[in-house]
């Protein structure tokens, strides 16, 4: 299992578009991918779960990947969040 | 914000007849338009379509949430339709979409994400999805949604609060309610009330609890606790030096203490509630609300609290009336009226001010006595105390019921009348407790007022000659006091104002000052007020000229103290005194005492018991008064500069 802590940098947080893109990107990995936020564990492959978690700008989150392709999954997930999903 | 606040019944169409994504969007946009959410329908629809271009807003599981955050939105809102057979919305899971919510979000605020989040949380529930799809009417749809939202967010709200309070929810109206409630009140209701409320709210935030504080200040109660909030809370902290409405806390855990405990030990108080150590409060019939706490409260504190309750109601009359009377004299002075017995009512304008002011002033004793009695015996005490206070001003005796000038017992008599009135009513309640419950309602409407006032009248007529003599002696004593002892009195009273800055010493001196006004000792009040003005000003000066003795935060607070001091709000000095009492308090006391002494020596007089710089125009020998203020403040400042340790490099 690998994990990484980071901050949400896009000003709108996990709204629908980033959540959809993120969940779609994660869906191609076989690993379990979760986001720990506010004492919750959120399934990163579910758009609904991601949006329901209400992860806002500046939130401290931790991505946890567990499985065969965990390294690659973590790298892409962290990349997406750190780049602010290509948003501002 | 709740979903159902954003979703009107008229904006829901269950089992809509739409066959494509485009038709669904048209219908939803129309619903928003009808609800009056949109400023520009076309621009909004373009926003929706542009968003769909970027990628579908269907999230799978048969749900789609088209949305746009746009200038074209006038007010935030939701519209919803269900399509039982489903339409193709290019969902990621390939399934048709059958529940569609459309969000209209204005440009400002976080609303967008929160609505989305909450909708998603609710819609993850399969049962709710089934219920929504089954709904045949807008009412059914809405009530299913509302029921689930209530269920979910009343408990989840509370849980989330405990784990993380970083969210801004603690300040919003919360469905979960507040865990702790507080009521703060002090007699003057200017500074302590708010400081205690702030301290409690801040500390609770640090400790991770939600707390709402009601302030019973001079401007009336603010941020008032609602019955629902009281019902939902773990307990209530009452940090008050005057009476607050307690009846509403029946059956809850209530911890009662003084207002300074709220400022200085907020953590302790909060823990009392959280750990359930506070006793459960019961209101018993018509008994005075504070009866429950008497056991833990010393007799001295009780008397202080009743007295302050009376004083706080009396002050507005004295302030308004006193200033008006002083203005009357000012007007006649300017008009050059002859200084005879008509002085102050010589010109028409002066006569107006003096008469109206005099009427207001005339309520001083009855209100004082009435509200002391009410503090002791609740509502039935009010009438009895009022009458007693009036008798004290008139000087009624058995020998001369119409009133004997030598038997006017004044302030002292009104004080006694207030306490006597309260206890007479309590006694009557005890005496008539044998009444069957069917006759009990006779007590407040007939027995207490009638017998209370009869007894009160008899009691006052009996004590008036003796108390009147004492009152006259005090007045004469004050007036005939030699200049040395007057200066000494000024020093002592002004110094007392600075000892605890709003506490019992301060209040004792202050009440003495207002009492002196009632018997013509205007120089006493002048010394008292200046004693209360010096500490904040001395501190403000020190923060300006001796910056290195204070932290950056203190220096900022220092500026506010100029204003506080000039407005006669001694409480401004409290934060400084609290952080370094052994150095700050003696400096302030010395400065105040010097100012009080000078004020007396200069023969300054003040007919109004409050107002600071704003009543300077009506101060007698205002030049000397200003001089006293300046010298006193400088003395305080210099002492602070000498005594205080260096905090930061200059």
Distance between the termini of chain B: 50 Å
Give the helix level of chain B as a range of percent: 55-70%
**Looking across the biggest beta sheet of chain A, what order are the strands in?**
1-4-2-3
Helix content of chain A: 25-40%
The CATH top-level class label of chain A: Alpha Beta
* Low-pLDDT ranges of chain A: none
What would you say the CATH architecture of chain A is? 2-Layer Sandwich
| SSE succession of chain A | EHEEHEH
Shape of chain B: elongated
Oligomeric state of shown chains: heterodimer
Give the biggest beta sheet of chain A.
Answer: 4 strands, antiparallel
Domain PTS EIIC type-2 (chain B): 303-650
Protein name (chain B): Fructose-specific PTS transporter subunit EIIC
Subcellular location (chain B): Cell inner membrane
Pfam family, one (chain B): PTS_EIIA_2
State the gist of this model.
The complex is a heterodimer of chains A (88) and B (650). By secondary structure, chain A is α+β, with helices and mostly antiparallel strands. Chain A has three helices and four strands, in the order E-H-E-E-H-E-H.
Structure report:
The complex is a heterodimer of chains A (88) and B (650). By secondary structure, chain A is of the alpha+beta class. Chain A is 35% helix and 26% strand. A 4-stranded antiparallel β-sheet of chain A has the order 1-4-2-3, with helices on one face. The radius of gyration of chain A is 11 Å and the shape is globular. The relative contact order of chain A is 0.32. Chain B has 4 domains: 3-171, 3-Layer(aba) Sandwich (Mannitol-specific EII, Chain A), CATH 3.40.930; 180-297, Response regulator (Rossmann fold, 3-Layer(aba) Sandwich), CATH 3.40.50.2300; 300-477, no CATH class; 483-643, no CATH class. Chain B contains 23 helices and 11 strands. Chain B has helices spanning 3-6, 21-34, 41-54, 111-123, 126-134, 138-163, 192-207, 227-232, 259-264, 266-274, 299-335, 348-362, 364-377, 379-394, 410-431, 442-480, 483-499, 504-518, 522-545, 552-566, 574-579, 581-601, 622-643; strands at residues 7-13, 58-60, 63-64, 67-69, 77-87, 97-105, 180-185, 211-217, 220-222, 235-240, 253-257. Chain B is elongated and about 100 Å long. The interface between A and B is medium-sized, with 20 and 26 residues.
């Amino acid at each position: 299992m690998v994990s990484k802590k980071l901050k949400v940098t896009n000003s709108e947080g996990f709204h629908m578009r980033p959540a959809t893109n993120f969940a779609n990107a994660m869906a191609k990995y076989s690993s379990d991918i979760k986001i720990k936020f506010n004492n919750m564990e959120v399934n990163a492959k579910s758009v609904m779960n991601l949006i329901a978690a209400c992860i806002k700008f500046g939130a401290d989150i931790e991505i946890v990947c567990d499985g065969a392709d965990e390294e690659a999954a973590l790298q892409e997930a962290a990349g997406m969040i750190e780049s602010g999903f290509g948003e501002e | 914000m709740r979903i159902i606040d954003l979703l009107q019944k008229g904006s829901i169409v269950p089992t809509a007849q739409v066959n494509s994504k485009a038709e669904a969007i048209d219908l939803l946009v129309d619903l928003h338009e009808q609800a009056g959410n949109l400023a520009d329908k076309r621009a909004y629809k373009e926003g929706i379509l542009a968003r769909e271009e970027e990628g579908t807003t269907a999230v799978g599981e048969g749900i789609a949430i088209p949305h746009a955050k746009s200038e074209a939105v006038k007010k935030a809102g939701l519209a919803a339709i269900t399509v039982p057979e489903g339409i193709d919305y290019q969902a990621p899971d390939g399934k048709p979409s059958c529940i569609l919510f459309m969000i209209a979000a204005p440009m400002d605020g976080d609303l967008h994400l929160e609505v989305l989040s909450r909708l998603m949380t609710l819609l993850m529930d399969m049962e709710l999805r089934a219920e929504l799809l089954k709904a045949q009417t807008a009412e059914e749809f809405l009530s299913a949604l509302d029921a689930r939202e209530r269920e979910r967010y009343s408990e989840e709200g509370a849980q989330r609060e405990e784990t993380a309070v970083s969210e801004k929810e603690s300040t919003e109206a919360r469905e979960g309610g507040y865990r702790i409630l507080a009521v703060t009140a002090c007699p003057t209701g200017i500074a302590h009330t708010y400081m205690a409320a702030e301290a409690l709210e801040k500390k609770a935030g640090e400790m991770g609890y939600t707390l709402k504080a009601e302030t019973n200040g001079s401007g009336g109660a603010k941020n008032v606790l609602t019955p629902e909030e009281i019902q939902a809370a773990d307990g209530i902290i009452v940090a008050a030096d005057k009476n607050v409405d307690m009846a509403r806390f029946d059956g809850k855990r209530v911890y009662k203490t003084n207002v300074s405990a709220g400022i200085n030990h907020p953590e302790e108080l909060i823990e009392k509630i959280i750990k359930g150590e506070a006793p459960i409060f019961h209101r018993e019939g018509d008994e005075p609300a504070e009866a429950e706490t008497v056991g833990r409260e010393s007799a001295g504190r009780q008397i202080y609290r009743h007295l302050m309750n009376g004083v706080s109601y009396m002050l507005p009359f004295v302030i308004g009336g006193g200033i008006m009377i002083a203005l009357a004299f000012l007007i006649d002075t300017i008009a050059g009226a002859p200084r005879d017995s008509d002085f102050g009512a010589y010109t028409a304008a002066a006569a107006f001010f003096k008469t109206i002011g005099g009427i207001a002033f005339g309520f001083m004793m009855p209100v004082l006595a009435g509200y002391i009695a009410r503090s002791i015996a609740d509502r039935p005490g009010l009438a009895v105390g009022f009458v007693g206070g009036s008798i004290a001003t008139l000087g009624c005796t058995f020998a001369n019921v119409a009133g004997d000038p030598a038997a006017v017992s004044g302030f002292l008599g009104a004080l006694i009348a207030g306490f006597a009135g309260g206890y007479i009513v309590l006694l009557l309640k005890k005496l008539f407790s044998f009444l069957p419950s069917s006759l009990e309602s006779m007590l407040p409407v007939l027995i207490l007022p009638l017998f209370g006032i009869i007894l009160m009248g008899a009691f006052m007529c009996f004590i008036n000659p003796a108390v009147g003599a004492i009152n006259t002696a005090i007045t004469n004593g004050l007036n005939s006091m030699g200049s040395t002892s007057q200066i000494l009195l000024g020093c002592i009273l002004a110094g007392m104002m600075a000892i605890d800055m709003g506490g019992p010493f301060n209040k004792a001196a202050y009440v003495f000052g207002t009492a002196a006004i009632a018997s013509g000792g205007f120089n006493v009040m002048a010394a008292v007020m200046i004693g209360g003005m010096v500490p904040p000003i001395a501190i403000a000066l020190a923060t300006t000229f001796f910056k290195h003795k204070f932290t950056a935060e203190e220096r900022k607070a220092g500026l506010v103290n100029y204003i506080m001091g000039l407005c006669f709000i001694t409480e401004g000095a409290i934060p400084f005194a609290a952080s370094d009492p052994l150095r700050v308090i003696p400096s302030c006391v010395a400065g105040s005492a010097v100012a009080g002494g000078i004020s007396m020596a200069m023969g300054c007089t003040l007919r109004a018991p409050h107002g600071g710089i704003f009543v300077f125009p009506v101060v007698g020998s205002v030049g000397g008064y200003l001089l006293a203020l300046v010298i006193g403040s400088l003395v305080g400042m210099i002492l602070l500069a000498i005594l205080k340790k260096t905090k930061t490099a200059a």
